[in-house]
Specification:
This protein is α/β, with parallel strands linked by helices and 234 residues long. It has a single domain, classed as Rossmann fold (3-Layer(aba) Sandwich). Helix content is 38%, strand content 22%. It contains eight helices and nine strands. Strands 2-1-3-6-7 form a five-stranded parallel β-sheet, sandwiched between helices. Strand 1, helix 1 and strand 2 form a beta-alpha-beta unit. Helix 1 crosses helix 6 and helix 6 packs antiparallel against helix 7. The longest helix has 20 residues. It starts with a strand and ends with a helix. The mean pLDDT is 97. The chain binds flavin mononucleotide. The site of flavin mononucleotide (FMN) has 16 residues, from helix 1.
């Protein structure tokens, strides 16, 4: 069975907006026959990388000198064909998520190449990851607000010479719910997220139509601005 690993970096874990989008996407992949393992960054005890001599590259290639829950993730990541990074936009990332991204270094082989004037590398041969997908939610109105998070994920994929499978993004995600219940619009987004997972598992790619169904505006920019500014009691 093909395997994927999803890492949800939201500190709000299963109660967060990111989980609201990621859960149906994972379900769609599972329905299409994928084995998807989900981790919450908040539940893992992962230290920040503190090694400036690149131990995992030049002393013991592939081995991290830190001993923590990354040792639980590394074997899973080596076996997964798809890595899903799920995160809220936190100008740009929650700290735990950034720690995990930094700690992916031991999976990358220390043999550098120059492509289009950029220094790149590849995963070690025992790492099966071929695609990296971003799933992200934000509070503001515009998609441009995801630019940095998208770029970080693209950069990671380019550094490791694997495919960036795209960005499943949901701006003003909190509007998918009203009084704790999914709205009609929210249900449409959930169904599109499930379809995204199915498409990724079945066709190896998510269609443009599905990306757009997930990220379409749920309200005008002016209205959202009013909602936010009404919350402020100056
Ligand atoms: C520290 C912090 C920074 C945030 N920065 C942004 C931001 O730059 N852009 C944005 O659209 N939303 C921002 N948000 C809102 C969250 O991205 C948004 O509510 C997201 O859906 C939360 O996902 P979660 O419930 O899974 O944690 C921020 C929230 C926090 C707590």
């Amino acid at each position: 069975m093909s395997k994927a690993v999803a890492i949800n970096g939201s500190p709000r874990k299963q109660k967060g907006n990111t989980a609201m989008l990621l859960t149906p996407l994972i379900q769609g992949m599972k329905d299409a026959g994928y084995d998807v393992e989900l981790f919450y960054a908040r539940d893992l005890k992962i230290k920040s990388c503190n090694c400036n001599n690149m131990y995992c590259w030049y002393k013991k290639p592939g081995i991290c000198c830190l001993k923590d829950d990354m040792n639980l993730l590394y074997p899973r990541l080596r076996e997964a064909e798809i890595l899903i990074l799920a995160t809220p936009v936190y100008i740009p990332l929650p700290g735990e998520m950034q720690n995990i991204i930094n700690r992916l270094c031991p999976l990358i082989k220390p043999l550098l190449e120059t492509r289009e004037s950029r220094t790149r590398a590849r995963f070690h041969e025992d790492v099966k990851i071929r695609k990296i997908l971003l799933v992200s939610t934000g509070g503001w109105w515009e998609k441009g607000n995801f630019g940095t998070v998208v770029r970080i994920t693209e950069e990671l994929a380019e550094d490791a010479s694997v495919e960036f499978a795209g960005a499943v993004i949901r701006p003003h995600a909190f509007l998918m719910k009203k009084d704790g219940k999914l709205t009609k619009d929210g249900q449409v987004v959930i169904e599109a997220a499930r379809k995204a997972g199915e498409e990724l598992a079945q066709n190896g790619a998510i269609s443009q139509e599905t990306f757009e169904a997930i990220s379409r505006p749920l309200i005008s920019e002016e209205e959202l601005g009013r909602i936010y500014n009404d919350w402020i009691k100056l």
